[in-house]
Amino acid sequence: MGSSRRLTDQERRQVVRERAKGVSVRAISATLKVSPKTVYNVLGRGRSAVSANDSRTRVLTMRVTDRDLRGFDAALARRGIAHRSDALRCLIVAADDILRPDDAMTEELRGLSAALNRVGNNVNQIARRLNEAKLKGERLPYTPASHTEIRDLAVLVFDMADQIQEMFRARRRALDLEVTRALAGLARPGAEHGAE
C-alpha cells in the first residue's frame, strides 16, 4: 500500500471530497492504494490542492503564541486528533454553527440584567437613607424590615449567579457538541474523547 505513485488531479479532488465527508485518511489511502502520508500531503498542499467543488484552496497564515498552540494541540490530543490542519479546516467549515449566537440565552441574560439593575437600585435607596440619617445625626433607620430586605436582595443575587453559571455550563455543552460534530472522523482509531 505504500506506493509512491503520483495521484491524478481527479484523485486529488477525490481525496479532498472524501476527507470533507469525514472519511478517514487511512480509508482514503487504502482506496487509492497510496500511503497515508500521500493523502496528508494532498490535504496539506496549499498551492496545488483543490477543494471538493474543484476550486483552488487558499493557504492561511496566522500568528499564535507557543502557549496557545500547545493548548490547541493538547485539546486535539484529548480528542485523539493528530493533525491540526485537518482540525482547523473542519472548524472553519463549521464556524457558522459554532459561532451562532444563542438567542434564548441572550434574552435570559437581558432579563437577569434588568433584575440585577432593580437590586442595585434598591441597595442604593437603602444606602441613601442610611447616609442621609448619618449626615443629619439621626438614628440610622435600619430596621428588621431593612435587614430582611437586604437578605432577600442577597438571595436574589445568589440565585441569579447560579442561573448564569447553569446557562454558561449549558452553552459550553452545546459548543462542545458542535465542535465534536465538526471534528468527527479526525480522531485516530482507538483514541477516546476526553482521555488525558
Automatic annotation (TrEMBL):
Residues 5-45 form the Transposase IS30-like HTH domain. InterPro entries: Homeodomain-like_sf, IS30-like_HTH, MobC. Residues 116-135 form the Bacterial mobilisation domain. It comes from the Bacteria. The lineage of its organism: Bacteria, Pseudomonadati, Pseudomonadota, Alphaproteobacteria, Rhodobacterales. This is Helix-turn-helix domain-containing protein. Gene3D superfamilies: Homeodomain-like. It holds the Pfam family HTH_38.
